[in-house]
Amino acid sequence: MNYISRCFAKYDGAFTESLKAAGFSADHARQFVTTTVECVLYTIKHTDLKIIVKILLSEDPSRILNLIDIEDLTNTLAMNPVQVNSGMEAISPVMKLVFIKNSNEIVDAAASLAWSSQRKINSYGLSEFINTH
């Protein structure tokens, strides 16, 4: 997870600039990037590994954004759905670049993250895991 976060941090300026070009203020852009990266990490951690790897190795790995719960993101950011969709469209090309340039390492990190999550579920039992996390 730290590797994926570092990859996104490395491109923070590009994410922010793409959002500012879409009409976001600098503060809203930073908040949007931070929250969306957290959502991507959550999505990687809680989605079937085969699906994640297939998306990350595709021609458009930014499709991982399609797996994010937009309603939850909208509520977390206190933005309306139109703003959130506009932001997602703005960061999609940067997200694609990040994933393509770092695909092998990100797939490895995603697999590790998903594996760790799955091991926790298996060691607790699913219902106990849900009740404690």
Q: Your description of this structure?
A:
This protein is 80% helix and 0% strand. The protein is mainly alpha-helical and 133 residues long. It has helices spanning 2-10, 12-21, 26-46, 49-56, 70-77, 81-101, 103-124, 126-132. The longest helix has 22 residues, at 103-124. The protein is built from eight helices and no strands. The model is unreliable at 119-133 (pLDDT under 50). It has one domain.
The secondary structure category is mainly alpha
Please summarize the sheet with the most strands: none
Q: State which percent range the strand residues make up.
A: under 5%
Order of helices and strands: HHHHHHHH
**Radius of gyration, taken over Cα atoms and rounded to an integer in Å:** 15 Å
Task: Report the end-to-end length measured between terminal Cα atoms.
Answer: 18 Å
Question: Which outline best applies?
Answer: globular
How many structural domains are formed by the residues?
1
Number of helices: 8
Q: Low-confidence parts, pLDDT < 50 over ≥5 residues?
A: 119-133
Mean pLDDT over the residues: 81
Q: What is the count of β-strands? A: 0
Helix content: over 70%
